[in-house]
Amino acid sequence: MKLTLSIFCLVVLLTSCKTPEARKPVNIKSGSFISKSIDRNKQLAAKEEARIQKIIKNDTVNNYIASETGFWYYYNKKDTIAGITPKFGDIVTFNYNIKDLSGNIIYSQQELDTISYRIDKQELFLGLREGIKLMKQGEMVTFLFPSYQAYGYYGDDYKIGTNIPLISEVKLNTITKESTTEN
Asked: What is the pTM of this model?
């Protein structure tokens, strides 16, 4: 009886000690969703840029400048004397409004009030954040932002919907340089 029990335990032990087999994937992802998404975004950006270029072409009064980051702007009031532009950490105050590309006001200056903003240390939509860095104190600039430079796919959850290109008139009131003695 002991011999039979010992043989049985030995057989169970030898047969149960298999190495686990690797599982094979059920399906293989091809990355086609990402490729389609990239194509959709490129088409959307091209369509928005064409609308903005049409506005620029039809506006014979203003001299538009293309930014390095993908938006366009012109000066309503320009500081021709060498002034300073805000840098990382500086505090600026400004007023602005937001319109759609047809010129319809989405947010007026009165609704948005005067904004106090610490450069690159607080939240502000990408295009406006970059645009303010181009301005000098007292200047007024009109920006044309494609949706990827504005509120993008998500909008602002209130008045600005999905993928809406915007126009914004900004007046930079003050620039306060960041203290060099801060720790």
From this structure: 0.79
